[in-house]
């Protein structure tokens, strides 16, 4: 996710607790979705779709934080 911001992500994960919570939640949802799609964990198509929407919302929030941090560090 966001390879162009790899270094900034690493920095923010150590400096910004809110960013870290969002990042960890995004990764947790990603794993749950993969597990449901692989039938490792139970989940209906509707549940998977809802989790994907939640994950996308988190990704959007992370991107906003990254853009703001990138702009202030430039």
Which oligomeric state applies? single chain
| Main sheet makeup | none
The sequence of SSEs as H and E is HHH
Bin the helical content: over 70%
Count of distinct strands:
0
Shape: elongated
Tally of individual domains: 1
Q: Which parts are unreliable, with pLDDT below 50 for 5 consecutive residues or more?
A: none
What is the mean predicted local confidence, pLDDT? 96
Q: Number of DSSP helices?
A: 3
β-strand amount: under 5%
- What Rg do the Cα atoms give? 14 Å
N→C terminal distance: 21 Å
Judged by helices, strands and strand pairing, the structural class is mainly alpha
Structure description:
With 74 residues, this protein is an all-alpha fold. It has one domain. The protein is 81% helix and 0% strand. It is built from 3 helices and no strands. α2 (17-37) runs antiparallel to α3.
